[in-house]
Design goal:
The complex is a heterodimer. Chain A contains twelve helices and 14 strands. By secondary structure, chain B is an alpha/beta fold. In chain B, 39% of the residues lie in helices and 20% in strands. Chain B has a six-stranded mixed sheet, sandwiched between helices. Classes of the chains: A alpha/beta, B alpha/beta.
């Protein structure tokens, strides 16, 4: 298919359709309303169903039902809406259901604002809801990558029978860029038939029961161990990242994800012209986190700079990656304000000149 | 090579549309492009703007603090963005609606009476096309032919408006060309 100029939200919707998702349940919230808007007209064209549910809680439980019946299904929301879905996502994880959830993050806490932020890093990667579970978290930095990752998300969800979350900031939702969909796209995983799905029992196989309640502790313990095996496999096989710039001998290594990393890349190119060598590690999976990549590049860099649209949530993972106490420099904008290349350039120069105060962790 | 511009004006002036058309033209030329609208709470008739980046390599930051050009279609837009134009860049002012002069002397200021030109040519709603033409003429960010193709594509469902929009586009383009830096060929001759 030829390249098409698409808004991120529309590209995410189309990517879901291309991945064979014919069901969408959601509730409106800015800045991702163009995803449900697009799918409300697109899904009927492919024989699918779009439902504007009465709430986020209802939406995620509709996903539970549809995924339990073996269908590819997606919802999208923005930060406060994801909080409302949290309980249902935990149930999906407990019942081993493949669902895809898109979070176009806005600034918080509470209702916060509607402009871009990366305020939900902890929520997505560490504390989405109760219970001992993980979700795969994918963070695109362009509209093309958003389209690609949404399609991958459905394969990963089916393969692991686990919720997968795609997180973008408001720029990913609102920006237009050229996007290409590939007609001959193959699943990125070998996907067995969904024999576990509840599709109607004709006495020809064991009953398929979708459930997350295990009152027998021994049985639940085994279930938890089975889940852990899955999470271990994801940590081993699904880490994704990209590196840029002078990774072998950087004055400063930047760690950033999503659209912030693009801003940093613009800064890196300008800094290289000034003879300052900067590298960047861009996590594409926020969970599992690319600990090794960050450690390796940081080991060859004099200084470390984390840039985020949050008060420093990702720093915790950078510290885990480093494995030893090292000062970490940090730059952020909050509340829907955006980091500019000029700010990153100034910060890197300040670090070089010894004028940036680093955070020291014992 | 990268061309970036912030186009700004009232909601309803067709600012977002000409931004998209510019991005399309860039994409059709095989360049990397991004189009980013301002979004957020705005009152009816309030200001709106979009940032368009056209580049030979993948677009880094889609947010541009100091763009190479600003197109100000109304006074609030001029007041908001005038100081941001990169030194050596272009400031296009819709003098039909803006009487205030620019105080910058380190940039090329282009007076574009967009509404008047459109009105005189009998296409009062084509002021945005005049402005788009002037921007393309001044910067050469994309070729005129490519923009013409996008005009034909955009208005395919309403063929009757294609020629009138091309007419105002050309008028704006000629005005922009008067202020453009000479091309290599022109400089040589």
């Amino acid at each position: 298919m030829a390249k098409k100029l698409m808004k991120g939200s529309e590209a995410i919707g189309e990517a879901a359709v291309q991945a064979g998702c014919h069901l969408f349940f959601g509730y409106p919230i800015t800045p991702q309303n163009e995803i449900p808007e697009y799918l409300s007209s697109r899904l009927p064209q492919v024989g699918g169903t779009f439902v504007q549910a009465e709430s986020e809680v209802a939406s995620i439980n509709m996903l539970y039902g549809a995924a339990g019946a073996g269908e590819r299904v997606m919802t999208s929301s923005s930060s406060p809406g994801i909080s409302l879905m949290a309980e249902g996502i935990s149930y999906c994880a407990g019942a081993k259901l493949p669902v895809v959830i898109v979070n176009i993050m806005r600034a918080g806490p509470g209702l916060g604002g509607i402009l871009p932020a990366q305020a939900d890093y902890f929520q997505a990667t560490k504390g989405l809801a109760h219970g001992d579970f993980r979700v795969l978290v994918l963070a695109p930095w362009s509209i093309q990558e958003a389209a690609d990752l949404v399609q991958d998300a459905f394969d990963l969800a089916d393969y692991y029978r686990n919720p997968v979350m795609v997180v973008g900031d408001g720029l990913i939702g609102q920006m237009m860029e050229p996007v290409e969909f590939y007609e001959d796209r193959k699943p990125i995983k070998e996907l067995p038939p969904k024999t576990w799905a509840s599709t109607g029992w004709k006495r020809d196989r064991p009953k398929a029961i979708i459930n997350s309640l295990f009152l027998d502790p021994a049985e639940l313990e085994q279930h938890n161990f089975d889940l852990k095996k899955k999470y271990d496999l994801m940590e081993r096989d699904e880490v994704r990242f990209a590196t840029y710039g002078s990774v072998d001998s950087a004055d400063v290594v930047i760690i950033a994800y999503g659209t912030v990393a693009r801003v940093c890349l613009s800064a890196i190119e300008a800094l290289e012209e000034d003879g300052i060598k900067v590298a960047m590690v861009r996590p594409i999976t926020l969970w599992p986190y690319p600990y090794e990549a960050v450690r390796e590049v940081a080991a060859k860099a004099k200084d470390i700079l984390v840039v985020e649209l949050s008060t420093g949530q990702m720093i915790e993972d950078v510290r885990l990656a480093l494995q030893r106490p090292r000062p970490i420099h940090f730059h952020c904008r909050l509340g829907g304000m955006l980091v500019s290349p000029e700010e990153v350039i100034a910060k890197v120069k300040a670090i070089k000149a010894g004028e940036s105060e680093a955070m020291h962790y014992a | 090579m990268q061309n970036d511009v912030i186009m700004a004006g009232f909601g309803g002036q067709g600012i977002l549309l000409i931004g998209k058309m510019l991005a399309y033209a860039g994409m059709h030329e095989g360049k990397e492009v991004s189009w980013l609208p301002s979004y957020g709470p705005e009152m009816r008739g309030g200001t709106c703007n979009c940032t368009v980046v056209i580049s030979d390599k993948p677009v880094g930051s889609p947010v541009i603090q100091s763009p190479g050009a600003i197109l100000a279609m109304n006074l609030p837009s001029l007041e908001k963005f005038e100081a941001d134009v990169r030194p050596g860049g272009f400031l296009l002012i819709n003098t039909s609606l803006i009487k205030q002069k620019s105080e910058r002397d380190d940039i090329t200021v282009i007076d574009v009476p967009a509404n008047k030109i459109a009105q005189d040519l009998g296409n009062p709603r084509g002021a945005n096309m005049v402005a788009l033409g002037a921007y393309v003429g001044a910067t050469g960010a994309v070729s005129l032919e490519q923009v013409e193709a996008v005009v034909r594509e955009t208005f395919a469902a309403k063929p009757s408006v294609i020629d009138v929009n091309l007419e105002v586009l050309h008028k704006g383009y000629d005005l922009g060309r008067e202020h453009a830096a000479p091309t290599a060929e022109e400089a040589a001759s």
